Amino acid sequence: MARDLSGKGNNTRLAHIGNDPRDYHGFVNPPVVHASTVLFPDAETMAGHKQKYTYGTRGTPTSDALGAAIDALEGSAGTVAVPSGLAAVVVPMLAFLSAGDHVLIVDSVYFPTRRFADTMLKRMGVEVEYYEPELGADIASRMKANTKVVFTESPGSNTFEMQDIPAIVEAAHAGGAVVMMDNTWATPLFFKPLEHGVDISIHAATKYPAGHSDVLSGTVSANEKCWERLYDTYLTLGVCAGPDDVYQVLRGLRTMGVRLERHQQSALEIAQWLEGRDDVARVLHPALPSHPGHEIWKRDFSGASGIFSIVLNGGGKEQAHAFLDALEIFGLGYSWGGFESLAVHVSLGDRVVAKAPEEGPVIRLQIGLEDVEDLKADIDKALAAAKA
């Protein structure tokens, strides 16, 4: 019998969700099942698929354990694990969009999502339109008779604009559209999209769930209304995650809560410190009262993760590169959510309607698990190099 974890704290739930050790002879972790072929006891069972597991792409005890854990966090009807965060965007889009449909995508979206929309979706005959992150309930004015999906991401990639998700959901549902949200920044610990009316919650499990910069993975969770169609598309495409990666994500979940507490605390301390510096024009972190979307963050979110951006006070590419090249502890890399701190010069040339900061170059910082004072010293040196 599975343990009743309702009402328990996040870390208690993370330590126990997803599998019952009594199902596996008392072993704490579920088995890593490497599977393609599954045998049937007789022809009748085989013909009717009358057993739980029928083929590797349709699930194993390992993938079921991760799916159950994510469902427990999301409050979802079902979850699929796919090979990357981008795949977690692509699968639901393909599930709910067809030729002749219209999709609304927030303009601060993760760039690979935009690339998929601008290439494959348009080639398929889908009308793609981008909207301002701050639009909120006014998204109703952008809805068309053929709008089938509204794709949200809050905070937005790189510049961290907040979206009024409940207001967008109300308007989108009134127009008959499915609402999807890339919730990678917050994880289900700090924001639960389905509780705010979102139909499909998307995560790059590469980031905080896996947490160690060595796994590519994504999860897609759906409410009861959308689960069957999502799952059918997932099976049709055959984009299942490998068992070793699934296991690594499940193992990472066990410590995600305590890691996020450290990421949040360190990032906020550094963000507040940077706000007081003359060489930083702006700090783009929604948990800061100075952020334009702070009130939405405070209303809807229960925490903040470890990634935010700064806008340097003046300069351009040369100053941005000087900043990055002076860093020693921060690595230069595109991912985030792992144990190590990272920095990247953000390119915002893909924006269509959302305004990019104009004061200077935008540097995105992933604050890892290192000591804060060491990270401050590294940033201080980088800012001096940029200024020089």
Structure description:
The chain is α/β, with parallel strands linked by helices. Helices cover 38% and strands 15% of the residues. The protein has twelve helices and twelve strands. The chain has helices at 10-16, 43-48, 61-74, 85-96, 111-123, 165-174, 187-190, 224-237, 243-275, 294-300, 317-326, 372-387, and strands at residues 78-82, 102-106, 127-131, 147-153, 178-182, 200-203, 218-222, 280-284, 307-312, 331-332, 342-346, 362-366. The strands form two sheets. The chain has a seven-stranded mixed sheet, with helices on both faces. Helix 7 (187-190) links the parallel strand 5 and strand 6. Helix 4 (85-96) packs parallel to helix 5 (111-123). The longest helix has 33 residues, at 243-275. The chain is globular and about 75 Å long. It starts with 9 loop residues before the first helix and ends with a helix. The model has no long low-confidence stretch (mean pLDDT 96).
Topology overview:
Blueprint: H1 10-16, H2 43-48, H3 61-74, E1 78-82, H4 85-96, E2 102-106, H5 111-123, E3 127-131, E4 147-153, H6 165-174, E5 178-182, H7 187-190, E6 200-203, E7 218-222, H8 224-237, H9 243-275, E8 280-284, H10 294-300, E9 307-312, H11 317-326, E10 331-332, E11 342-346, E12 362-366, H12 372-387
Parallel strand pairs: 2-3, 2-4, 4-5, 5-6, 10-11
Antiparallel strand pairs: 1-7, 6-7, 8-9, 9-12, 11-12
